Amino acid sequence: MTQFKKYFTLSFDDGLEQDKLTLEMMRKYGIKGTFNLNSGQFGQKACIKYIGKYGMATAPKDAKKSILWKFADSDRIPADEIRQVYEGMELATHGVTHANLSKLSPEELRVELLQDKEALQKFTDIPIVGHAFPSGRTSDKVETFLKENKFLYARGVTSEKAKRNFAFPDNPLNFNPTCWHIDKDIEQLVEQFIAAEPTNGDMLFYMWGHGYEFDFSTLKDLRNTYERIFDKIATHDEIIKCTNAEAFLSQKKAD
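User: That's the sequence. What structure does it adopt?
Assistant: C-alpha cells below.
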C-alpha cells in the first residue's frame, strides 16, 4: 500500500536584504525553501512604494520624500554575499532583469533565463532547475522554452488556496502557489494542511512572498506570524520541510 506524503516549502523573490532575517527563522525551525534571484540586479539599492499591503513599483531611494506613497527598502544582496547568505537553500531564476517574459523574443528569453541560470549556478552547488515568473507573467512560448531547457518547475503568483486540497500541480512548469504570505487567513490554511490526511496522493503547501513585505506598516505582525507557523510545522515530523526542487523531484521519482 502506497503511503502518501506531505511537503512544506517556501519561495521568496528578488534576493533582498530582508531575506537574512527570514533565513535566521527558517534555520531556527529547520524550514527549507527557495530564493529566486535576478543576477543582473545584485547589490542595487532601491525602495518599493506600496498601498496597504500591496507593493506597487520599485522606486529610487530619494523617492521616500514623496507624501503620496509609503515606502519600504528593497535593497538587493550583493554578489559577494550570495553564497554565504543562502547556504543550504535552493536558488532559482527570476530573470536577469525581472523582465516580463511573455513579451520577449526567443533570443531575449535565452538571455533573461539561461544567463540568469548560469550566473546563479556559480553561487550554489545545488543544481538550478526552477523559475519564478516576474509578476506572474508567462505564456505558452515561455513554458515551451523552459521545458526545452530542462527546467523542473516554474511558479506564478496567484494564490490557489481556494482549492483546499493541497494537491501537487498538474503542470509544474506553470503553476500557482498555495498562498501568498500576506493572505489574511494563512494561519488557518496551515492548520488545515496539518490536519489533512494525504489519502489521494502527496500534498504540497507552497507559500511565497517578497522580503520587503515584512517591513510594510500594515503587515507589522508578519514575522510573528511566520514564527507561529514555523513552530507548528516544526513539531510535525510527518511533514517534509524542503526546497521547491526537492518537492517536485519527489513527484518525478514517484512517476
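The mean pLDDT is 94.
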